[in-house]
């Protein structure tokens, strides 16, 4: 999507705020003993309170209001009976729709203190998100974002899950262009003023490969390694990107 007028901007800011606040609320509700289904239900209630619809349900008939992935689940984990435990790495991805505008955000957290290796993984992935955001300037090629993300991954010796990428958003949950999380030479298309897309690096402690579970949704690392993801929806705005999903006290 390209933002063409103030109506577009205000619509995106509204849904971005809702997505960001929902994610912040859900992260605050994570504790040992809660199931991923219970957590999803709390997120659903928060979205409904703000008159927003679940993007994955609306677009794909996904079996949950949000995606909740734990440990070796890298993305698209279906909320269910799984009980969250101390030490788990939990990723929550919230995407929603209001008045025809779509937003998307996500973050990872550790339940309790966790171990040092996991804490460093999450910190590096979040750093990579903001490195990518800081490279999202009008006129620069798309691959400038991936170059910035990859630089952080190399510094920390993390694998990037290259099968997953950022994507256009705004009028639908997945639009063009793809935003690779690594330097792809062919991704030369220049970023244009008003472009709307997600930046969402996925860093991994293992081989950096994912496979789809038999449920048809969950993306899991076959080597059981841990991943982290952080995501914002961004509007290209000269050299100062607008993060529509960033909220006070969030990631």
Polypeptide structure, described:
This protein has 251 residues and is of the alpha+beta class. It is built from 5 helices and 15 strands. It is globular, with a radius of gyration of 17 Å. The protein has helices spanning 6-29, 36-49, 55-60, 116-134, 143-156; strands at residues 53-54, 67-70, 73-75, 89-98, 101-110, 159-160, 166-168, 175-179, 196-199, 202-204, 211-212, 219-220, 227-229, 232-235, 242-243. The longest helix is centred in the N-terminal third of the chain and has 24 residues, at 6-29. It is 31% helix and 24% strand. The model has no long low-confidence stretch (mean pLDDT 98). α1 (6-29) runs antiparallel to α2 and α4 (116-134) packs antiparallel against α5.
Give the DSSP E fraction (strand runs of 2 or more residues).
15-25%
| Contiguous runs where pLDDT drops below 50 for at least 5 residues | none
Secondary-structure-based class equals alpha+beta
Instruction: Write down the overall geometry.
Output: globular
Radius of gyration: 17 Å
Number of strands: 15
Main beta sheet: 4 strands, antiparallel
Helix content: 25-40%
**Helix segment tally:** 5
First-residue to last-residue Cα separation: 24 Å
Mean pLDDT across the residues is 98
Give a topology summary:
Layout: H1 6-29, H2 36-49, E1 53-54, H3 55-60, E2 67-70, E3 73-75, E4 89-98, E5 101-110, H4 116-134, H5 143-156, E6 159-160, E7 166-168, E8 175-179, E9 196-199, E10 202-204, E11 211-212, E12 219-220, E13 227-229, E14 232-235, E15 242-243
Antiparallel strand pairs: 1-4, 2-4, 3-12, 4-5, 6-10, 7-8, 9-14, 10-13, 11-12, 14-15
């Amino acid at each position: 999507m390209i933002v063409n007028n103030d109506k577009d901007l205000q619509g995106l800011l509204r849904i971005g705020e809702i997505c960001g606040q929902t994610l912040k609320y859900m992260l605050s509700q994570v504790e040992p003993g809660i199931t991923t289904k219970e957590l999803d239900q709390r997120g659903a209630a928060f979205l409904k309170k703000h008159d927003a619809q679940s993007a994955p349900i609306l677009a794909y008939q996904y079996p949950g209001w949000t995606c909740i992935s734990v440990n070796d689940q890298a993305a698209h984990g279906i909320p269910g009976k799984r009980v969250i435990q101390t030490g788990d790495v939990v990723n929550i991805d919230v995407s929603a729709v209001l008045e025809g505008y779509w937003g998307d955000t996500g973050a990872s957290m550790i339940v309790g203190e966790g171990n040092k290796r996991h804490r460093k993984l999450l910190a590096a992935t979040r750093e990579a998100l903001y490195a990518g955001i800081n490279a999202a300037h009008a006129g620069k090629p798309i691959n400038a974002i991936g170059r910035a993300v990859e630089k952080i991954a190399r510094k920390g010796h993390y694998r990037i899950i290259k099968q997953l990428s950022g994507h256009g958003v705004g009028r639908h949950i997945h639009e063009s262009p793809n935003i690779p999380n690594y330097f792809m030479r062919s991704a030369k298309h220049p970023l244009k003023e008003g472009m709307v897309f997600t930046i969402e690096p996925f860093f991994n402690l293992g081989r950096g490969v994912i496979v789809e579970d038999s449920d048809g949704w969950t993306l899991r690392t076959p080597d059981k390694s841990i991943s982290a993801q952080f995501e914002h929806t961004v509007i290209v705005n000269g050299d100062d990107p607008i993060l529509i999903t960033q909220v006070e006290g969030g990631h």
